Amino acid sequence: MSACDACLRRAWLVGRLSGHLDQVRGQRQHVREVLALSDADLLAALAGAQRQSIAQEHAAFRPRELRARVAAARQASVCAHDAEYPRGLRDLPDQPAALFVAGGDRAAAALARIAEDPFARPTVALVGARRASADARRMAESLGRELACAGVPVISGMALGVDAWAHRGALGAEGDTIAVLGSGADVVYPRTEAGLYDELVARGVVLSEMPPGATARRWTFPARNRIIAALATMTVVVEAAERSGSLITATLAEDLGRELGAVPGRPGVTGTRGTNGLLRQGCAVIRDAQDVLDQLFGAGAREAGRPGKDPARLTLELGAVFAAVAAGHDTIAALCEHPGQVRVVTGQLGELEYLGYVRRAADGRYVTIP
Amino acid sequence: MLAHATTFALDGLGTRRVRVEIDVRPGLPAFTIVGLGDAAVRESRERVRSAILNSGLEFPQRRVTANLAPADLRKVGPGFDLALACGILAASGQVPAPALASRAFYAELSLGGELHSCRGTLAVAEATRVAAVGQLVLAAAAGAEAALVPQLEVAAVPTLADVVAVLRGGPVPDPPVAADDDVRSDALELADVLGQHEAAEAMIIAAAGGHNLLMCGPPGTGKTMLARRLPWILPDLSGAEALDVTRILSIAGLHAGHGLVRRRPFRAPHHTTSSSGLVGGGASPRPGEVTLAHHGVLFLDELSEFYRSSLEALRQPLEDGLVTIVRGQRSAVFPARCMVVAATNPCPCGRGTTGCRCTEPDRERHARKLSGPLLDRIDVACSLDMPAGALATVPVPTTREARERVHAARARAADRVGDGGPSRNADLTGAQLRRYAPLDRECRERIEGAGRIVTSMRARDRLHRVARTIADLDGAERILPEHVTQAITFRKDVLRTEPDA
User: Fold this and answer.
1) Model ipTM?
2) Which end of chain A has fewer surrounding CB within 10 Å, N or C?
3) CATH topology of domain B2-167
């Protein structure tokens, strides 16, 4: 599968002008207007002194060369003229001309998975801060995992923090997950998430509107947010400060008529003012994956993913400890009534951990493993 | 005229016999000291001259040359003063020269002629005894420490004039009496700690097995408070250990009392300490913190803030229980068998779960610093948080209770391996573990089945070792499954990539 010549030329031009786009003043407000311009207008608006030379390159563009590069990067491409072009993106006035999907032989199949109408087969975008609190990272992981368990693909941007943990959660549940990158689909950014990227390519979908090899720039992040918002049936902001990129995604989702939800955060902390602000404006409150599923399918229509382990198989005592941990008594101290119990509880938690029902977090708290 | 006197020079933690030769010749009045002395030895001339004159004796108005032999040994400190003074008095005929032959001298002189004790008295006393010199003459204040060495004749006198009286055949003062053991009464009470039951239990396990311990928790949760109480729940030093510790502290100038130190030392070097500060060093090698903590506790607060090179340098001493320092042509071997207690914040900002704003790269850097060489040597770990729940204000076991449990567990472990085997479970090698602490099928399955959470062979041995200590604390002959599961909870594992890691 491959995008048509005109769309490839357009994608090439956006990549070629990427550095110029970074110079657009107030890019957060205007980048979408710029991206909606025609090729000629785009050149006129951005190329500046290099206008002549870039216009020549544009005229001389050979789609075959880009196709060869796409193939060499083991990617597939699709354009707005293809039936496989994701339906959700057609709602965008500045829809990307082409999408590039990583994954070699799997790329085509991956594309087919996201081609459907977001309202026919619901998907959820989980977005949030890079500098997320431990609670938010935990929340992102469990939302990702439980939604994936319930068969809902999880879309995010592979950024540090919430994005990465949302993907990890979904991958951990062997579920479907889609990463929309700001760089080319073959460029790992941030580099520290190289391990996650490999897994996403192998088991999920990694896509970008940028041609292979394009580096991430400031403007590409808000730009890819529009793709995330348009692909997903519902966008859930896990944690965001005011004026953050996640709120851009939230606004876009709302403008596109998609569902929007936010996870309530600790009051009095700057990092959660954005999400709490969304809630104040009346967006859906997300406490867990069930709230998301209720929003998508109607209350009670679909159950959140059940834990793979059955606490009923535990002995009475271990079952009680497991239930207590699940109910939030997550430290040894919280599980003891008197000092004599400390050793017993220590042993029980060790056994639960050994059996794979709980694990101990770095801060000493216990969390249940679904 | 020629005379010589015997004294000792400190060399690392050992001593070297030094022969002080004095030659008094006709010529212009002069006093020269040769034999690789440091500044304190050069200045010794002025102290010796004044002390002799102020004691009503005569300083020869001739050419005086002193030689400290062996000449290639660097000599440090003021302990040669008395030997120099006595040599001069003998060479100038003021005391009988043969009186010096069966004596060793070790004291600093004041200008007024009083004797002061110098660091390392115990080591010098032991050396005097081993070299069978005869009587050791030193300051009255050092008498009690010298008296710790049995069957050694000690003349502890207050002034140079008294020394002269003894050398002229006068009565030797009564031999000093060894001071009582230095058991300080200011025991720290473990039960002052409220709510940290998990950490207290971890510390008791660590104490019982001699395991190194890592405490992880936000500031103000009691990590330091707990660590300071560790020496009090460890058994007292045995006779030989106490001599070792007293000798080291005496040489380092840290022995405040007079008696044998019975309490285990507790050293808490600041995290800016250099690697030579930790393991020892210097032109003439001096013991570092790890040696000062020998048989005791080395507390590394803010582990992640220590220089990596410092922690790297600690690894080999902790492995071998010895530090070997080579400087130029000199080398020194210091003992370094101590328990390490390390404390760290869960993340760089230290706030833990409540309100932590650290970025993931920050955390990873923090974890990487922790993951260094030292962590490999840590068997037991625990988490601390602000006390909460039903136990928040309940005191942890008292020092006395903890001590008794530790004592019983150590006795059980020592019985099991018998004489000659490592008495602390922490020192058991993998092979010794399998020999002395066999596992039944269920326990082995648990340890091996813990593969998901315990990934290396070394980590399995560690689990096995700690399970053995927990069983010892429980008074159990064999390791039971619940001991293994408790050990699983106390394993160290701060490096996982989890949403909350």
Assistant:
1) 0.76
2) N
3) Ribosomal Protein S5; domain 2 (3.30.230)
Of all residues in chain B, the one with the smallest CA distance to A134 is B500
Both tokens of A366, joined, read 């216990």
Give tens-digit pLDDT for A247-289.
999 999 999 999 999 999 988 889 999 999 999 999 999 999 9
Quickly list DSSP for B33-97: EESSB-HHHHHHHHHHHHHHHHTT----SSEEEEEEESTTS-B-SSTTHHHHHHHHHHHTTSS-G
Is B500 within 8 Å of A134 when comparing Cβ atoms?
A: yes
B188, B229 contact by CB (below 8 A): yes
Peptide bond preceding B348 in cis form (omega within 30 of 0):
no
Burial of B192 (0-12, 13-18, 19+ CB in 10 A): middle
- Give CA–CA dist B495/B490, Å, rounded: 14
With 80 as the cut, is the pLDDT of residue A116 above it? no
Tell me which chain B residues have a C-beta less than 8 angstroms from the C-beta of A171.
Answer: none
Residues, chain A = 370
Residue of B nearest to A191 (CA): B361
Residue A84 touches chain B, beta carbons under 8 Å = no
Q: Does domain A72-297 have CATH number 3.90.79.10?
A: no
**This prediction's pTM:** 0.70
Q: Which of A137, A192, A350 sits opposite B488 (nearest CB)?
A: A350
Interatomic CA distance for residues B477 and B78, integer angstroms: 56
Whether B452 has a pLDDT exceeding 70, the answer reads no
- Check A362 against B361: CB less than 8 A apart: no
B387 touches chain A (CB under 8 A): yes
Report whether A127 contacts A92 (CB < 8 A).
Answer: no
Closest-CA residue to B306 (of B289, B323, B291, B293): B289
Length of chain B: 501
Nearest Cα of chain B lies from the Cα of A155 at a distance, in angstroms, of 18
In which region does residue A268 sit, left (phi positive, over 0), alpha (psi from -120 to 50) or beta (all else)?
left
Nearest Cα neighbor of A292 from A130, A156, A154 is A154
> What is the C-alpha radius of gyration for chain A, rounded to an integer number of angstroms?
23
Task: Tell me how far apart the alpha carbons of residues A357 and A367 are, in angstroms, rounded to a whole number.
Answer: 9
Q: Which residues are CB-contacts of B258 (< 8 A; sequence separation ≥ 6)?
A: B144, B145, B179, B182
Q: Please tell me whether residue A219 adopts helix, strand or coil conformation.
A: coil
Interface check A338 vs B, CB under 8 A: yes
Residue B455 has pLDDT above 70, yes or no: no
| Annotation: CATH topology of B190-489 | Rossmann fold (3.40.50)
pLDDT digits (tens, 9 = 90+) for A155-192: 999 999 999 999 998 988 888 899 999 999 999 999 88
In terms of DSSP bridges, do strands B330-335 and B322-327 run parallel, antiparallel, or are they unpaired? Answer: antiparallel
Order of strands across the sheet that contains B380-383: B266-267, B297-300, B339-344, B213-216, B380-383
Q: Which chain A residue is nearest to residue B383, measuring alpha carbons?
A: A364
pLDDT at B451 over 70: no
